[in-house]
Amino acid sequence: MNLEPIGVIHSGFKEKFGIPRQPGLAGSMQATIELLPEYASEEIVRGLEGCSHIWLIFIFSACVGKGWHPTVRPPRLGGNRRVGVLATRSPFRPNPIGLSAVKLDDIRCIKGKVQLMVSGADLLDQTPILDIKPYLPYSDALPDAHFTLADSYRGLEIPVVFSEQATAQCAQITQATSLPIAEQITEVLRCDPRPAYQRSAEREYGIRLHDYNIRWSIAEDEAIYVHAVDSVDASLL
Predict the structure, then answer these.
(1) Architecture of domain 160-236
(2) CA 22 to each of CA 4, 78, 90, 98, 105: distance values in angstroms, whole numbers, following the listed order
(3) Domain(s) of CATH 2.40.30.70: residues in the chain
(4) CATH number, span 7-140
(5) For residue 77, what pLDDT is reported?
(6) What are the start-end ranges of the H helices in the chain?
(7) What sign does the CA torsion over 16, 186, 232, 227 have?
(8) At what angle do helices 164-177 and 181-190 cross, to 10 degrees?
(9) Helices in 141-226 by DSSP H: which ranges?
């Protein structure tokens, strides 16, 4: 069985560190799925405009060839407890296939290209898309479902404080690109991307978001401080 991608996603997540661990946690993050030329026809997406959400089936391309283990240490469990890989959504799997439900914002068929504009995707930029399916509320939403290892999600409910420098940089970026960069940074950082074994208030982290390097820290779990939003390409600022 040979599976070939039908498209690729263009997202603001340029590296694995900082990507929310589940879809929908950073709803302001928008992305574009571009179908490959052999699939880029209006017929292939006919009727999909009636969907508010879609399923993306994709390849964890950054993990291909890196192997897998029967058990993993999920960050959700503090990284200290081993569970079976099939009881997690770890990207290091026998077959590195992912599944995410995202919001479908628009479909664009222009000059032989087919693009799907989505929001809330938790996919690395350039991730290959294997398939797209409609989200069916009457069967896909299961109100009685439960999972004891992850029965709920709670992000960091602490203030996100931007320095004067970061505030000015965000305003400049939004004016130049229309990106709601401050809102996106806030959503991503409240997902707490820190590794479970790194909780030092002294440590400063960096996240690549779009074409910007976000420098930030968390002080005693009381506030998230955004120190700077530096352009990777100086010509962007």
Answers:
(1) 2-Layer Sandwich (3.30)
(2) 24, 16, 11, 11, 19
(3) 7-140
(4) 2.40.30.70
(5) 64
(6) 137-140, 164-177, 181-190
(7) negative
(8) 120
(9) 164-177, 181-190
Residues of the chain with CATH 3.30.2310.20: 160-236
Contact between 40 and 156 (Cβ < 8 Å): no
Instruction: Say how far apart CA 141 and CA 145 lie, in whole Å.
Output: 9
Q: What is the mean pLDDT of each run of 10 residues along the chain (237 residues)?
A: 95 92 89 97 95 97 90 74 89 94 96 95 96 96 85 83 96 95 95 75 88 92 92 63
Q: Give CA–CA dist 36/106, Å, rounded.
A: 18
Element (H, E) at 83: strand 83-84
Identify the burial level of 93 via C-beta atoms within 10 angstroms of its C-beta, where 0-12 means exposed, 13-18 middle and 19 or more buried. Answer: middle
Rounded CA-CA distance 215/225 in Å is: 9
Q: Is 231 buried (19+), middle (13-18) or exposed (0-12) by CB count in 10 A?
A: middle
Strands 97-110 and 128-134: unpaired
